[in-house]
Write a structure and sequence with these properties.
Layout: H1 3-18, H2 25-32, H3 36-43, H4 46-68, H5 75-92, H6 94-103, H7 111-137, H8 145-164, H9 172-187
Helix pairs in contact: 1-2, 1-6, 3-4, 4-5, 4-7, 5-6, 5-9, 7-8
Length: 188
Amino acid sequence: MDNRTKILKSSLELFALRGYEAVGVQEIALASEITKPTIYHYFGNKIGLLDTLLKEYNADFFDKLNKEADYQGDLPLTLFRLTKAYFNFAKKEKIFYKMQLSFLFAPEASDTMKAIKPIYNKQFQIIEEVFVKAGFNHGNMRGKHRIYASTFIGMINTYINLFLMDELELDDETIYKAVHQFSHGIYS
């Protein structure tokens, strides 16, 4: 494993375990078995490391999310595909997803929040656009796209949190039940 990869892996484990602010560059260097200047060489500083970690782990996920967000008039199918994309990502990258989820509750002025906010906003925009488009087919949804997107992402993250606590399996049956329950609320 090259130094850059070791740094990313070690920082992920440390940030997930104790939070971004609680981990120092020296600790990351020791865990990676490299020197501090090596971290600065690859990432510039600690926040550069966090930004890289978030962007690289989310890159494939955003590609998949954009693909599955292609609304073609069948909202339940689109929501099923989106939920599956989230669930598959959480299953594949458990430690990362747990870390990223915890970052959403960081103090507003923290470096953690500054780093995660653009990532969350990008997710939100993708999901929100699905509900904007669905509003053209379902008149009762018009103007409610923001709250629907927020509620949908919140529901998904709640299910994923239960999975991360070993209380729920993220399978197709769970996806069906989640989307079915959510759909009852938005179609009424």
